[in-house]
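SUBJECT: A protein chain and its fold
Encoding: whole-number codes for local backbone shapes
Chain under study, with its fold:
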Amino acid sequence: MNEQLMIREIKNKQELETCFEIRKEVFVKGQNVSMELEIDGEDDKATHILVLLGKEAVGCARIRIIDNKAKLERIAILDEYRGEGYGKDLVNFLVKFCINKKVDEIYMHAQYYLKTFYSSLGFKERGEIFEEAGIKHIEMVYEK
């Protein structure tokens, strides 16, 4: 992991707003997801994770625990920071975080074009391809 890279739980409302700004940039502007779908009313039930490069916020994610299963959501790295391994570091952090919570399962609805990336980090496809926000997705589950 890059020495300047820090991945951690958010500490305050300002950092939560930073996560929302990253999500708006990546999903709303970058992928044409509507604001109503992006800000879905589930954020108050989630643990939010921030990716910092020095003092610069470059990514985020959220985790929701549903029936002792961890659902990884809103995994985002700003465009200009992609290809540096930060997404891999973020997903590995999320998995370790969830394992420490002793959940029964870790899963996500992954954008289909990223399935190979998530497979390389220990996730396996489950079920059929489906659409969310007009984007092809596949459910993927982490296999320990």
Notes: Helices lie at 13-31, 35-38, 86-100, 115-119.
